[in-house]
Amino acid sequence: MELKDKLVSSFLAFDEQYQVDDDVQQIRSQAIKDFETFGFPSKKEEAWKYTSLKSALKHDYSIFPKKEDAIEYSQIKKYLIHDIDTYDLVFIDGIYSSHLSTTTHDKIDVCLMSSALNKDKYKPVIDNYFNKLAPKNGLNALNTAFTKEGAYIHIHKNIMADKPIQIINFSTGNESSLLLQPRNLVVVDENSHVQIIERHQSLTDHPVLTNSVTEIFADRRAIVDYYKIQNDKETSSLIDNTFIEQKDESNCSVHTFSLGGNLTRNNLNFYQRGERIDSTMKGVTIIEGKQHVDHNTLVHHIYPNCESHQDYKGIFSDKSVGVFNGKVVVEKEAQKTNAYQSNNNILVDDKATINSKPQLEIFADDVRCSHGCTIGQLDEDALFYLQSRGIPHKEARGLLMYAFANNVLESVKIPEIKKRINNLIAEKLGVELGFNL
Amino acid sequence: MLKIKNLHANIEGKEILKGIDLEINPGEVHAIMGPNGSGKSTLSSVIAGREEYEMTEGEIIFENEDLAELDPEERAHKGVFLSFQYPVEIPGVSVTNFMKTAINAHRKANGLEDMPANEMLKLIREKSELLEIDRKFLSRSLNEGFSGGEKKRNEIFQMAMLEPKLSILDETDSGLDIDALKIVSNGVNKLRSEKNAVLVITHYQRLLNYIVPDVVHVLIDGKIVKTGGKELAYELEERGYDWIKQEKAV
């Protein structure tokens, strides 16, 4: 049976097994109909021209993982940022692991989507925000239909979350192949601040497909810093759908570090619904083999006096493929918009590919929009310069690639993450840099 | 220390060096002067091991070892240093981190452990003072946005850090004002000893007022056509290169 048919025919059993509030149930029922209509995206669609889901959809995924697998902290410690104090939401095969997690309801809510979807206490927030941002398409509909678990984060007014929050999804290989659909909701009220780290990690070589949807609402003067660490096994595919709505004077940033996985697609949309908003999107992609990473971004400038900054760097080896499709829409009312976009790539090998496509739709006349895209090889002059100082060829290459990608790390606000990513990049490039940031 | 015999070299099939002979002993300073396009920079690149240049004939013996088969980094480990005419800008790597990487690469090649951090800092401080380099400068990205003078000073700073046996200074005076020229020359002179040697490649005699050569060679059209003492440099400054060409033709 095709995956689509299997999913559609499993819905009733799912809906019965994971009961939720009536309103949410209605949303789910509508969503499965939408998924039936849209199905999975194909390469015929403009937004999927360079990315085929075929390799990710070919497995006979299990949709109902049996139960939480017993995982010890020692097995997963290395995937967590553990040298600082954090709140942790850990999911094993899509099921919440209470013994590995640290939640809170003290001034902020860091807890589970499954309880938010059932308890009256959260109903006003769910009614207001759940499924309000994700555009109607096959993948979002699929995730919505199978909504049951994920992170629920609510930072109340005038609160600075006292520590970063980690959302980590592990898969164990308990199922021979597994489809995961985490659903996260992040609501940050006026004048509040939160830092979130998200990671998907497979612990074995079983095929895993994750189709995750995260909706983030940043109210007036809220600050949201979001870090996505994508460094999974080559048997895992990830479709990350993240949607952010910002109100007046809010400041949101998303850093995406794509360092591994079979297929990774990031759909990242920012909707600016207010004035003097700042939106930042940064990414470092370093892949090899036959890996594929696709960044599909949208910034929708709707009101005047807002800014957006996009800076994506990619290093592609072997036969790996990168895609960057960055769309910036500036509506007629959005005067004095400053929108910057840059996408720089290094193709290490002849067979590596990057498809880079800036898309600017500007309807206002008093704006500053710039975009730049470069594709190149490593600078031979620079290589010789480093070698002539005694740095061996391999290290010199690593150092140059590191230097190329490194500036994206400058805006990372959590030093431990900066250090971690720095080490991951160095490891990835196979070099000992001899120094740390 | 360095013996070059009948060196011929091509770039993209075009012969640039057409039979160079040169011998430099420890403690000596040699200058190679010549008009534009005579092959001066090619010679320095070939000695340092730049791949784009193909050695077609002859040999380069450094400390009794043939350099021809060695990678640039191996030549560096043996003690060859090239101060670039156009130092490359490398955004994202600070001068300090670059120096640490280079020093430790040298040590590794010589079977030594990494230099302890405090020792490294001390060395950097000492050598940067020699070149009158501001501390802030060391945390900037390598050569990025540096003025011409800063770049050259940074080259000599690297030379001071790495303590090479043979330093090749390729047009180190270009882009330097008189103050920077003095600082750079002073740095080079302080690093001179009985054990190391310097090869100064220059268009003008100006630098040779400060770094005084023992031997001056004139390179024209890929060949050394005249060799003399430091007074030859003055003569060239005064009379240009044409008289040598004529003398050679006669």
TrEMBL record, chain A:
Domain SUF system FeS cluster assembly SufBD core: 174-404
Endpoints of the signal sequence: none
Domain of life: Bacteria
GO biological process: iron-sulfur cluster assembly
Pfam families: SUFBD_core (PF01458), SufBD_N (PF19295)
Residue ranges of every copy of the SUF system FeS cluster assembly SufBD N-terminal domain listed in the record: 23-167
Family according to the record: Belongs to the iron-sulfur cluster assembly SufBD family.
Protein's name in the database: FeS assembly protein SufD
Organism: Zunongwangia atlantica 22II14-10F7
UniProtKB/TrEMBL annotation, chain B:
Protein name (Swiss-Prot/TrEMBL): FeS assembly ATPase SufC
Family in the record: Belongs to the ABC transporter superfamily. Ycf16 family.
Keywords noted in UniProt: ATP-binding, Nucleotide-binding
One Gene Ontology MF term: ATP binding
One protein family per Pfam: ABC_tran
Domain ABC transporter positions: 2-246
